[in-house]
């Protein structure tokens, strides 16, 4: 009998897993809260269940194959690695233990675990209503980062320099938390890296180290990443060692692990570790395009109780993912995808909004307008190829939407003026003479109004 895998999530980030499972001849069963999820077309069985409903997912899993259940459960690029672990535990399937997955989901438990194990991470406090905010922050020096305890994609995450702004930021973070809780931690200066790995039999298998491009403070918007990292061998080894120490401290023993790690003036520090592979196109697109390795396939094999299979690189390329940001308004048209796909080295172009959609300048990593992925033989070549694809896109906004005019007429610090020359970075914007206001969209050639 062929293997059956239960994949949590049928969105764009899960499509590589769904395709690979299908290509390997497995029975593909999946669940998603979106009845019309784009990955549903790859499923042999689809279960319309919200991914935070662990009991509903367990009940659905028990019906697979006429009650025989799946051979494994898997997720990637979702908030719901704990749900996957609870399903695996209930059905006695391979995977991380539920308590370990809980520690890798709840950022307070994660930070407490790191502190107890002497894993370098920032000072922190979970905000409660029992004592004053000032008292709670006595041991957490600023500037601060406020974040939800249990969310991903930088939703509700903001840097705060002035203590008077903390209360509002905490309220916002709580609104993005499934449990209504917020964490305040000391801001970590320095470049940030993404790491993907597999864990089996006490061994961590490295599956990609990428440089992240984080911009637009006080939010933390990832405008792209490049893999492999430019970090030198010694720095990379230190990043991996601290990450591995964190993985073991959390108790992650069988499956995938993903880390956000920073290189600060005080040394390497852990931002977060999750009990899954990364979203943001890294595990499903950029690492395979650079190396020829499919970590998603190996992670699913572990979930099915199999060996990881071949993890030997067949390619030696650089892969760059870059994002296009929009501004406040309503999409009228989004042109240029076919032309962008013809650009040299381009592997994929993702348009993340459609005509009629309301869009905004991104406050988090799920609000960007498009992403492109391109390969090259050098970091500069891969980045420029991704930039060239971006330059071929045209996001056309409806001029009748008043919110666009409000954005153009605003001079607030945030959202920033995407048309201003000082906001050019990494070659995304073409060179133009300085212009005085947001009302000059020729500075941002892919946005038309």
Structure description:
The chain is of the alpha+beta class. It has four domains: 4-93, NAD(P)-binding Rossmann-like Domain (Rossmann fold); 123-186, 2-Layer Sandwich (Dna Ligase, domain 1), CATH 3.30.1490.20; 189-303, 2-Layer Sandwich (D-amino Acid Aminotransferase, Chain A, domain 1), CATH 3.30.470; 318-448, Glycinamide Ribonucleotide Synthetase, Chain A, domain 4, CATH 3.90.600. It contains 13 helices and 20 strands. It has helices at residues 15-23, 54-63, 81-90, 98-103, 107-116, 133-136, 166-175, 233-250, 282-291, 295-303, 337-341, 379-391, 402-409; strands at residues 4-8, 27-32, 45-48, 72-74, 124-126, 144-148, 158-160, 182-186, 192-200, 203-215, 221-227, 255-264, 267-274, 318-324, 329-335, 346-351, 358-359, 370-376, 394-397, 447-448. The chain has an eight-stranded antiparallel sheet, sandwiched between helices. It has a four-stranded parallel sheet with strand order 3-2-1-4, sandwiched between helices. Strands 5-8-6-7 form a four-stranded antiparallel sheet. The longest helix is centred in the middle third of the chain and has 18 residues, at 233-250. It is globular, with a radius of gyration of 22 Å. The termini are far apart.
Q: Can you say what the CATH homologous superfamily of the largest domain is?
A: Phosphoribosylglycinamide synthetase, C-terminal domain
What is the helical fraction, as a range of percent? 25-40%
Name the strands of the widest sheet in spatial order.
Answer: 13-12-9-10-11-14-18-16
Q: Please state roughly what percent of the residues sit in beta strands, choosing from under 5%, 5-15%, 15-25%, 25-35%, 35-45% or over 45%.
A: 25-35%
Q: From the alpha-carbon coordinates, what is the Rg to the nearest angstrom?
A: 22 Å
The CATH topology annotation of the largest domain reads as Glycinamide Ribonucleotide Synthetase, Chain A, domain 4
General form? globular
Biggest sheet details: 8 strands, antiparallel
CATH architecture type of the largest domain: Alpha-Beta Complex
The secondary-structure class comes to alpha+beta
State mean pLDDT (0 to 100 scale).
91
**Which spans of ≥5 residues are poorly predicted at pLDDT below 50?**
421-443
Number of helices: 13
How far apart, in Å, are the first and last alpha carbons? 57 Å
CATH class of the largest domain: Alpha Beta
């Amino acid at each position: 009998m062929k293997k059956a895998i239960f994949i949590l999530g049928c969105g764009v980030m899960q499509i590589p897993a769904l395709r690979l499972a299908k290509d390997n001849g497995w029975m593909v069963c999946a669940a998603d809260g979106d009845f019309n999820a784009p990955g549903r077309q790859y499923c042999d069985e689809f279960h319309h269940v919200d991914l935070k409903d662990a009991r509903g997912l367990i009940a659905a899993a028990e019906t697979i194959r006429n009650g025989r259940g799946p051979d494994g459960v898997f997720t990637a690029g979702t908030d719901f690695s704990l749900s996957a672990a609870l399903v695996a535990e209930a059905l006695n399937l391979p995977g991380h233990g539920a308590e370990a997955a809980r520690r890798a989901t709840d950022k307070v438990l994660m930070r407490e675990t790191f502190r107890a194990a002497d894993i370098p991470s920032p000072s922190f406090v979970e905000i409660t209503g029992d004592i004053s905010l000032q008292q709670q922050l006595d041991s957490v020096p600023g500037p601060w980062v406020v974040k939800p305890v249990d969310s991903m994609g930088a939703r509700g995450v903001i840097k705060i320099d002035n203590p008077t702004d903390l209360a509002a930021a905490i309220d916002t973070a709580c609104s993005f938390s499934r449990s209504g809780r917020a964490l305040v931690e000391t801001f970590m200066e320095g470049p940030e890296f993404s790491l993907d790995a597999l864990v089996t039999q006490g061994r961590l298998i490295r599956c990609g180290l990428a440089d992240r491009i984080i911009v637009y403070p006080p939010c933390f918007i990832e405008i792209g990443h490049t893999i492999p990292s430019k970090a030198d061998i010694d720095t990379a080894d230190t990043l991996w060692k601290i990450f591995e120490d964190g993985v073991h401290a959390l108790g992650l023993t069988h499956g995938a692990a993903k880390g956000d790690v920073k290189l600060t003036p005080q040394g390497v520090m852990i931002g977060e570790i999750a009990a899954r592979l990364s979203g943001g196109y890294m595990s499903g697109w950029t690492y395979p395009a650079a190396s020829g390795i499919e970590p998603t396939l190996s992670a699913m094999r572990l979930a099915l109780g199999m060996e990881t299979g071949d993890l030997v690189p067949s390619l030696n390329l650089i892969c760059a993912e870059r994002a296009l940001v929009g501004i406040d308004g309503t999409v009228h048209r989004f042109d240029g995808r076919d032309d962008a796909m013809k650009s040299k080295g381009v592997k994929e172009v993702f348009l993340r909004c459609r005509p009629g959609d309301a869009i905004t300048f991104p406050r988090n990593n799920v609000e960007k307008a498009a992403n492109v992925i391109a390969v090259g033989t050098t970091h500069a070549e891969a980045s420029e190829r991704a930039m060239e694809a971006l330059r071929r896109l045209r996001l056309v906004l409806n001029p009748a939407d008043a919110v666009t005019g409000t954005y153009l007429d605003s001079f607030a610090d945030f959202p920033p003026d995407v048309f201003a020359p000082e906001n050019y970075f990494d070659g995304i914007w073409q060179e133009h003479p300085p212009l005085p206001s947001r009302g000059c969209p020729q500075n941002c050639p892919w946005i038309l109004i």
